[in-house]
Amino acid sequence: MKTKLSLKFKARDAFVIAAALLIAAAVFLLTLPKANDGRLYAEISRNGEVLASLPLDADAEYIVNGDYENVVTIADGSAFFSSATCPNGDCVHAGRLTKAGQLAVCLPNGVTLRIVGAEAGVDAIAG
Fold first, then answer.
1. How far apart are CA 125 and CA 65, in angstroms?
2. Which of 55, 36, 43 has the alpha carbon at shortest distance from 117?
């Protein structure tokens, strides 16, 4: 017994394809680099929610409260975790971030410190 397989294009197929293309376009547009003024910013987020975006050219301090407390310091054109009450304190040892694309994370508190803004430079060249 052979079963005849029919593959006909239906209206709901077009709807599914259109919805998938719309979602893909939205994701693409949301991930495009945003126009900026050439300055670098420290973007501080907790559990995926952006809490603050602070310019690296102005000294500041930002405290993030959650399960633990993180203090993010902006000084001398860099951003860093200056103190943390989390168990390991690995985020404090991440050092100073100064270039676009650099990132430091406090996993126990869900805090991310990311440098955004001007184009990221070349990290390495493979020959």
1. 40
2. 36
**Predicted confidence (pLDDT) at residue 120 exceeds the cutoff of 70:** no
Distance, CA of 119 to CA of 39 (rounded, Å): 10
pLDDT above 90: residue 36: no
Within 10 Å of residue 79's Cβ, how many Cβ atoms?
A: 27
Distance CA 41, CA 37 (A): 10
pLDDT in tens, 73-100: 999 999 999 999 998 889 999 999 999 9
Structural domains in the chain, sorted by start: 41-116 (2.60.320.10)
The CA-atom distances, in angstroms, between 14 and each of 5, 20, 26 are 20, 10, 18
Distances (CA, A) of 1 to 5, 8, 82, 109, 113: 13, 22, 73, 61, 63
